[in-house]
Amino acid sequence: MIVTVTLNAALDVTYDTPDVDWAGVNRVRHVHRRAGGKGVNVARVLAALGQDVVATGLAGGLTGRAIRDDLDAAGLAHGFTDVAAESRTTLAVSDGDRTALFNEPGPPVTADELRNFAKSYEKAVEGAAAVVISGSLPLGVPSDYYAVLAGIAARLGVPALVDADGEPLRHAPGGRPAIVKPNHEELARAVPGGTPAEGAQALRAEGAGAVVVSMGADGLLAVTPEGDFQARMPYAVRGNPTGAGDALVAGLALGLVEADGWPERLRRAAALGAAAVAAPVAGDFDRAVFADVHPKISVSTHP
Amino acid sequence: MIVTVTLNAALDVTYDTPDVDWAGVNRVRHVHRRAGGKGVNVARVLAALGQDVVATGLAGGLTGRAIRDDLDAAGLAHGFTDVAAESRTTLAVSDGDRTALFNEPGPPVTADELRNFAKSYEKAVEGAAAVVISGSLPLGVPSDYYAVLAGIAARLGVPALVDADGEPLRHAPGGRPAIVKPNHEELARAVPGGTPAEGAQALRAEGAGAVVVSMGADGLLAVTPEGDFQARMPYAVRGNPTGAGDALVAGLALGLVEADGWPERLRRAAALGAAAVAAPVAGDFDRAVFADVHPKISVSTHP
């Protein structure tokens, strides 16, 4: 069982509106609603890969109920802790050419609610093979909370993977997570100056077991106890990059539970990321693209 | 008791986002959610005027529940009939300068659901002083349904006011409503060619007791059994015209239950419309603007 954590779960809504008038009235042709947030996307990919997975985190209000209902409809196991405030909606308005994204602020979380979550998190992690902790923190959650969660997992002997940005990323190594996964821009913000390899090394020095840096079409860089590796893509896949990082994280989580060596872990993770770009919706991936790109990804030790 | 009918009730959501990037990611600063739809706005204004009012119509899904929850929070009596599909959301995205409106399609309504509504409508109308029927029809509701509803009210001796557009407006007079209230553009679409007075006369000839045409800053034209009247505004009020027509309709409904003569009915309705323009949210009106503009509105018999 892999546990994913999404503290700022969302209802992802997409409006399909041809010829948007940005200063007038638009009739929406199609509305898509889907449970989202990075950890939920990771759980979808892991479930599609046949893994036993449960999506956890915080959810509140009628939007929280819509999130749970959608996961039920998708047959995805979940165990979200209730918060009183309304979970956020993210809206994508697409006119075919351009897409505008609107991210609502997350629900404010009380200390009591966070204690409730910590209790059920510890229970879930006790029996788990790995934990994936992803995404932004809602208001009221301390910025070192991912380090706290990774620390609980470390104490229980369960490897944790943290995919975060900003302060939560900066603090994450303190919880001794098995893997920290920033993209190269997030890494540059967290450890300014120096190369990606130096930034990753710095996060390892602070407690991260391994650091995997996603570099978009340039592949992956991994700084690990077994050495440094670079995965290079054979070609660029066109499509929607939203959710590519989550598919990549799902691949890394799979590597944690299946105990592959780093080269194969990285090859699979990079292939899933590319296959997610080819799929229109975050949390999905294109199996044909995965099958084609996977064997063509080269992994070298990094100079 | 005044009954309002909103077959296509909505959750009106407003996003306040400074400097919108229409091709990128936007952080929403404030989210406002409020039960809406024209009849709901009418009910809000009537309640604010101290009237005993109940908002009815169709509502479904979690969005329907959010609509009911918001009415509960506002202390507004309601009795919506449940539909299986999801009620619509309308979204206004404002960057301060421009506002883009996105109207989701309404829920498809089944014949059974419409029969359930008709039953509870007839029960509500039996004890009512007036009925206000407003707004668009969701999918599955026949275009002459407002005539059917007005006809039920007429049979029970309860005056009905219909505020509609397109085919529903075209058919409305067949139900012998006390008042039909198009704006001048809606009237011109329903009865092409001729003056507003001629268009209104045509709808009266087809069965409407009176026709009140709203002309924006130009005031109101009323074609009634007591003659034709024109209400003229003393000055233009700046602000948000959304909901002005609903406040105007609330004023006309009040005239139906308080049995004022047409000049005072029109003066109050036009003043409420202007006072709603001065309020930022549909369903509200500015009492100071109402008090100032009301005595200054001139009503003349139309040449």
UniProtKB/TrEMBL annotation, chains A, B:
Spell out the PROSITE patterns in the cross-references: PFKB_KINASES_1 (PS00583), PFKB_KINASES_2 (PS00584)
| Family designation | Belongs to the carbohydrate kinase PfkB family.
Q: What is the lineage of its organism?
A: Bacteria, Bacillati, Actinomycetota, Actinomycetes, Streptosporangiales
Task: Output the superkingdom of the source species.
Answer: Bacteria
UniProt keyword terms in alphabetical order = ATP-binding, Kinase, Nucleotide-binding, Transferase
Domain named Carbohydrate kinase PfkB is located at 23-280
Which Pfam families did the record assign? Answer: PfkB (PF00294)
Query: What name does this protein carry?
Result: 1-phosphofructokinase family hexose kinase
